[in-house]
What we know:
By secondary structure, the protein is mainly alpha-helical.
Amino acid sequence: MIDISESVMQLLLAVIVAGPLLGAVAALLPAPPGLKGRSPDQAVLRHGVTVTGVVLVLAIVLALGFDHDHPSRMQATTDISWIPALGIRIHLGVDGISLPLLVLTALLTFLCALYSFFKRPAGGSPKAFVALVLVLESGTLATFAALDLVLFFLAFETVLVPMYFLIARWGGAGRQAAAWKFILFTLLGSVVMLLGLLLIGVKEGTFDMMALATDNGRGLSTSVQVIAVLAIGVGLAVKTPMWPLHSWLPDAHTAAPTVGSVLLAGVLLKMGTYGFVRILLPIAPDGMRTFAPYLAAFAVVGIVYGSLACLNLVRQGARGDLKRLIAYSSVGHMGFVLLGIATMSPTGVNGALFANIAHGLITGLLFFLVGALKDRAGTSDLDTLAEQGGMALYGKAPRLGGLLAFAAVASLGLPGLAGFWGEMLALFGAFRPDEALSRPAFLVFMSIAAFGTLLTAAYMLLVVRRVCMGPRDHEAPVLADVQGYEFAAWTPLVALTVLAGLWPAALLGLTDPAVQKLLAGGLQ
């Protein structure tokens, strides 16, 4: 770790949040400043790689300068009056909860920009593509750094427009309908969420999340907290996505381009669960205790439902699409995150935060791999692939097959890889939830969720068997194996999945002190 002054840390965080937005403006200029290429398209794509690379480097420097001895303390804080009449401020900061998500966002966006430089997006202007990706990155980073409720909401909404256009303009079949479904679901949820945020701000007389968390709901009656949790929770649950508010997700993932799917699964879904942890747990704890059993019930239904949907897809015919299958798997995996949050215990919430990061790494890798498979074979439909003579990736493209098998076993929660710890801690949290919650009910939820892990293993192993194994048909088209740029984009995700699985303390050491303080009611 390195010693960096607080003022430099403030500057780093401000540049990390605002830098991509400035880069998006520069991408729309006639020629990105200071960058040359064989063509304008190559220059703007290189600009995207440069901006996201700089943001990633700054995020790593911020992480190295972070005071790891006091991860519960909000650091690199900037607090500037923005709209004095309403008490709205530009208030930014990071602690052990938000820092990993900040770095994950910067990493995945850089890898997507690098992948797009070599695998150019078809169907639209590269200038618009790069600008939309950078706006999306800025909005996501601002969401994880915001410490004002209104600023959080604005950042939360900023990502919707670029993701809509990424799906609608660069997506595949059915992209228009999928993009409309995405924007309508998320906007309707956001309207309800805004009402809840305004209710808290008006009743407490401040939108400052640190002050609200320190007050720990003492200034809000139980009825106000219940209404606020219901309103805000609906908006967050749509973005997570929680069953039964998930129906936009499979269509969006199936239609989205590879980069869109990676960012949607890797970082955008985390914004919903982050909101539960950062806003509802410390600010409206009594309201959360009222709804926690219902949240847990929806979570475990989502775990089982997502797994059964995946089993159905991997076994059936026409709609057995790999991208759709991974989308449904996200419903199940995010169910474990919601279950951990619903326990309101340090163990469960730490498990939820760990599962968030693990899901971003593993599912991001899965969408990269399935996108590469679709580019090579022209389809990601399991039965169409079988009709082409069987994939047998181990024989036709052994590195690609090996990576797909690795990502699959990581997703099913194999011990020693990142996916294991988050789900296990969420189950442990359900075994012993917050004292105010019904332990018998949560033991039932734990049992159902544990059964869901068996279903997850079943469908992931079936995917590996159908796609990677089997006799090779020598008359089937030859597939290119992993290319150099793909290796560069995917290796960090593989390495971090292994590192987080073998050394979970690296992440839990950041989140646990911050979670302990958050649940006790305080961020300062």
